[in-house]
Design brief:
With about 50 residues, the chain is mostly helical. It has a domain of about 35 residues. Helix content is about 25%, strand content about 0%. This is Transcriptional regulator.
């Protein structure tokens, strides 16, 4: 197959472009493991979890 002669297939993927709901954020924060290094925001998981 010659890549120059092929065309990319157009496929619509089911992507939710709406902002996350408050409940979705709560669920995600609850799933973060405690005791891990903070991310680039420097906020530890325990601090995020203490607010929900």
């Amino acid at each position: 197959m010659n890549p120059v002669d092929s065309e990319a297939a157009h496929i619509d993927l089911p992507i939710d472009i709406n902002p996350p709901t408050t409940e979705e954020i709560r669920v995600a924060v609850r799933q973060i493991k405690n005791g891990k290094a903070a991310g680039s925001d420097n906020i530890p998981a325990e601090a995020l979890k203490s607010d929900i």
